[in-house]
Automatic annotation (TrEMBL):
Stored SUPFAM superfamilies: Family A G protein-coupled receptor-like
GO biological processes: chemotaxis; inflammatory response; inositol trisphosphate biosynthetic process; phospholipase C-activating G protein-coupled receptor signaling pathway
UniProt keywords, alphabetically: Cell membrane, Chemotaxis, Disulfide bond, G-protein coupled receptor, Glycoprotein, Membrane, Receptor, Transducer, Transmembrane, Transmembrane helix
Gene Ontology molecular function, alphabetical: G protein-coupled purinergic nucleotide receptor activity; lipopolysaccharide binding; lipopolysaccharide immune receptor activity; phospholipid binding; platelet activating factor receptor activity
Protein name, as recorded: Platelet-activating factor receptor
Taxonomic classification: Eukaryota, Metazoa, Chordata, Craniata, Vertebrata
Keyword Membrane: yes
Assembly, per entry: Interacts with ARRB1.
Amino acid sequence: MMDEKNSDRIDSEFRYTLIPIVYSIIFVLGILSNGYVLWVFVTLNPAKKLNEIKIFMVNLTVADLLFLFTLPLWIVYYFNQGDWILPNFLCNLAGCLFFINTYCSVAFLGVITYNRFQAVTDPIKAAQSTTRRRGIILSLIIWVVIVGCALYFLILDSTNVVLLKTGGKNVTRCFENYEKGSIPVLIIHIIIVFCFFIVFLVILVCNAIIIRTLLAQPLQPQSNANVKHKALWMVCTVMAVFFICFVPHHIIQLPWTVAELKIGFQGNSRVHQCINDIHQVTLCLMSINCVLDPIIYCFLTKKFRKHLSEKLQSMRGSRKCSRVTTDTAVEVVVPLNNYPINTMTKYSVTPVP
């Protein structure tokens, strides 16, 4: 049945070009990077030997892959000018997994940050208390809570038919049906945004303390300085994921919800259009976390860095052997194993082995 009430909704037509392109790139890069990360974890780390933080990272990878598998559905949707031509249950599934990926990513990045905060502020206690069992329990709690909330999207009537302003064509929208003046919907969005910024504030404070603690440490040998440098980069990467991917969306989410529910901005269509345009861009930014998350693994696990370095070194060696050139500058290959080995003690502040 066609929804006449939503026929006059503000639309951002550039999204039908931008989002398929961005999602296609994210899909390819995300599947390759997260698939490789998961393969390395499974290959190099038997399940019984996974420690707490590695358990968090495996779960974060799984959450990213679940969302990446739905990207082809969204690509088809936006490529068809926002017309859901697939079965309706796939719209529900895509919306459900979008929610799961977003807030599982936020939650697991939060517990990873707190794990590193403990390792920096009280390394001895953290080394003694960090257990596989705690990682499993926290991961289960995160999955149960977020999947439980996301089940709402599976039972929701997610599609509606609207008449396009241009061309007079009927299209089926996916999760774009907004009941005018719905206070319950507004309250749900307020709760989600509020919870996000609580988690973000905790992560911000923890990372600020981590940076301050690391910078306050006295000068150390080169090997220890390299570890400190990697730890700082890890903190910066986590913060970059939040500031690039999650914060813009949650800043614009409430104004966008108010405008879509026609509770506010009714007298200024230009402001409403601007808010909607920004919202579409933030949806693209949200998906980038699936590509940025694997970068965090490089700074957190020695085995992952070693495996990646060996592969890159092998590739460089193969290319060197296959090329015949007189340019000696191109022929220079510095083996990674010439660098000093980290000899920090058990309780030093280091990324996870």
